[in-house]
Amino acid sequence: MAILSKDEAQNILKKVISFSKADECSATLNGRMRGNIRYARNNVSTAGASDNVSLVVESRFGKRAGVATCNQFDDDTLRRCVQRAEEIAKLAPEDPEYVPLLGPQQYLTPVSFAQSTASITPDFRAQVAGDSIAACQSRSLTAAGYLEDGATFTALRNSKGLEAYQQGTNLDFSVTVRTADGKGSGYAVADFTDVSKFDAKAITKIAADKAAGSVNAQAMEPGKYTVILEPAALVSDEGLLNRLFYELGAREADEGRSFLSKKGGGNKLGQKLFDERVTIYSDPLNPEVPSNVFDGDGLPAKKMTWIEKGVLKNLYYSRFWAEKNKVAATAFPNNFIMTGGTQTTADLIKGTAKGILVTRLWYIRDVDPQSLLVTGLTRDGTFYIENGKIKHPVKNFRFNESPVIMLNNIEAIGKPQRLGGNLVPPLKIRDFTFTSLSDAV
Amino acid sequence: MKRRDFVGLTSLAAGALFLPSIPGFGLGNSVDPAQLLDQVDTAVKKRMADAALNAAKSAGASYADVRIGRYLNQGIFTREKQVQNIANTESYGIGVRVISNGTWGFAATNDVTEAGAAKAAQTAVGIAKANSKVQKEKVQLAPQKGYGEVSWKTPIQQNAFEVPIAQKVELLLAANAKALDNGASFVNSALFQVNEQKYFASTDGSYIDQDVHRIYPTFGVTVVDRASGKFRSRQSLSSPMGLGYEYLTPKAADKVAGPAGSDITGYKMSYDMLEDAAAAAKQAKLKINAKSVVPGKYDLVLDPHHLGLTIHESVGHPLELDRVLGYEANYAGTSFATLDKWKSGKFQYGSKQVNIVADKLQPGSLGAVGYDDEGVKTKQWDLIKEGILVNYEKIRDQAGMVGQNESDGCCYSQSWQDVQFQRMPNVSLQPGKDKLSVDELVKGVDKGIYIAGNGSFSIDQQRYNFQFGGQVFYAIEKGKITGMLEDVAYQANTQEFWNSCAATCDASDYRFAGFFNDGKGQPAQSSAVSHGSATTRFNGVNVINTARKIG
């Protein structure tokens, strides 16, 4: 039930639209099947599975809109859901930011679904946890990890003739390995569209090696260092580039409250803000990080360049802000791809006279939105590099740094890797600002 | 935070920010606001609960509990002169947790019938049996007597869901107008209201019906100086509370003045949103041209709205026993407050002035409930006594691991469909026993900074090293507030910081700071918690200047 085919989904939506008496009506069906397993202290702690399909109906009378939802799809329930959306709409205040619903659109053909991932079983998840735990136990290490997988679909239809459908799958895996004495900790993380590319043992080995290698970390003076930031430090749950990617909104910039606002008014579109090696774009059809071909409004997603050779090329425009500024609206981006070279992290280490290798960053928070200055800490694998080799583990640092400054201090860019649905290279950065030490392991 | 959860919180999503699916808030389906006033008959819930418990026992469970939960939310969102969204949501379902073969199993369903409950119980037993094959340690539950049929309700005066939406919209727009009249360029305001109707039953013989209410009014004001290109913000000094709509009727007795010369007002059990919005706009304007702080060591005087977050991060989290034991190692992290430090009985967490208690009782707090989500009656207990670490925060399956035989009653789940686990209770710094006003406290400071409101916050995964900002900063020179400062953040080590605690004001200054969305677990769950304290002084803390140029 959770993953409806295009025809099954559109048949329900057609009915919904036919029941509408509003000026405009749009209907969205979202479905997901999801499963997870969690382990810690070399034991499984929790596991679960869920599936759900829900319908969202939006009805509009003039500039008034109402939303109602349901998760059963017989005619009576559908009719009641439409009626409720219409009743709520009649009571709602007029929306000064109203834009009419979109008409029919042309979409790319999505490539973001893998049947292998949609077919994952509880036994498979238990096996993953078992393999990961066994790989650590045999080395007297302790594993804590989490696997979550899911399949989703979205179908849209509205009274202006718009019709859209896409499916997707995803698998997220992360593991933290600690030594028995608590003096070493290592982390590895990966995500996939297709489970057949997933190797829990190999990922666990990376974390285990980092844990074993990070025992007895030495203290180094805080200050400015050359760093090699692995992709997990740049994207994943906490990453230095997340904040930059999601701060590309035109409206905040135009309103004067973003690092992309221009002194005296307007935004910094067209300005060179970063090192000329920095190019960042979104592409729903990239085979390594496929994503949605339309957003929640039904706007077609396509390849979109945000930063090219250090120059700000595009900003995100919602439909309202686009109309107000007489520019094209932007579909909400679902992946970010930063171009790079061919060097692996190991190659970058080889080419470094003195520096710090950072596996992961943690608890990143805004300090000053004016400069995009953020603070956070290194975690689970921080090492000193000398003459092209990892010399010894170092105690974790707190940093205060802006991704804008960082992308102007690039020494080298490695080979992009998938993480969090994005494609991001390891970066070698000079003058990265560490401001204090932490005893945390 | 996952990439897909991240989008709602940044400017990129500003156009679409206020949809029903706000992380940690609107978990349910949209409903007619009238449905938010409904209740389900307790007798009906008891029948469904018994169906689940009987099915679990028949399938071989040695223990089972069932939570039938109706989670209601209303959120009203505005910016400047307009309403952006009004979201009314309901989430209703059943979660069943069992122990079979000494292993936990959990399953949930939105089929809220006796048959649905029984089926979920059977699924949970199936999962427990499957997982028991890779399990090495059997679950040990601290003993818990059944309470029979009991109930508890948040002691509110006015159910916020009964107040007409138009009246709430009017309040938010009036607050926005106050901010705009006082020089704000932009203002966003919101009112969140939560009602958890929770029914808990277990094979221990408890049938617990609870009606829990929470409310959170908030706003953010931004002033943009186009000429210099600078912008500064000030967030509201309200707190989410375990109160009804009475929180929004300001009472003079609930207002607490900051030190002379500071223009800060703190709020206890009621909040003056209009007054605070006006003050926020004035303060945000002053921040544009405030003096940039000279980095160095300062004595800090921290107001309770600010200090609550420092307590939360540097005491509340490290004393969660699941973190100490390693269950959160892959996400939230572990803890520096290890068992050996606690067992020594002399680990000096803070100075003698530091007395920190945990509780799930204080009226008006977010943590207050009659019973937790595994049927344990709530209580108050010491965490830090005269600076010494004396206890942790723990639930039934953890007590035995530290040689205790009683849960602390701080088990919680954000909804029927998530499994309950150990969450932070209210964690509060006890006010000083001797009479001490804020002005008297400031008078003794030679070179210091008074910080009001919580701002930027970051702490490592074992809770040693932290950095905190704030909303408003004032210089203290020779015992007097001399003017506003900007670009202030302090960095410290948890143990050094709490040992630098010099004095805390008396109970007349005590009030709550609260948090609606404390995250933990995989998949992540949100919980709400309050922290009480009075204005407190910390000596010789390292302050950095956070201003950077990006060209």
From TrEMBL, chain A:
All copies of domain Metalloprotease TldD/E N-terminal, residue ranges: 36-89
Family the UniProt entry places it in: Belongs to the peptidase U62 family.
Name of the protein in question: TldD protein
Annotated ranges, domain Metalloprotease TldD/E central: 148-212
InterPro entries: Metalloprtase-TldD/E_C (IPR045569), Metalloprtase-TldD/E_cen_dom (IPR045570), Metalloprtase-TldD/E_N (IPR002510), TldD/PmbA_N (IPR035068), TldD/PmbA_sf (IPR036059)
Top-rank lineage group of the source organism: Bacteria
PANTHER family, per the entry: CONSERVED PROTEIN, TLDD PROTEIN
Classification via Pfam families: PmbA_TldD_1st, PmbA_TldD_2nd, PmbA_TldD_3rd
Domain Metalloprotease TldD/E C-terminal: 222-435
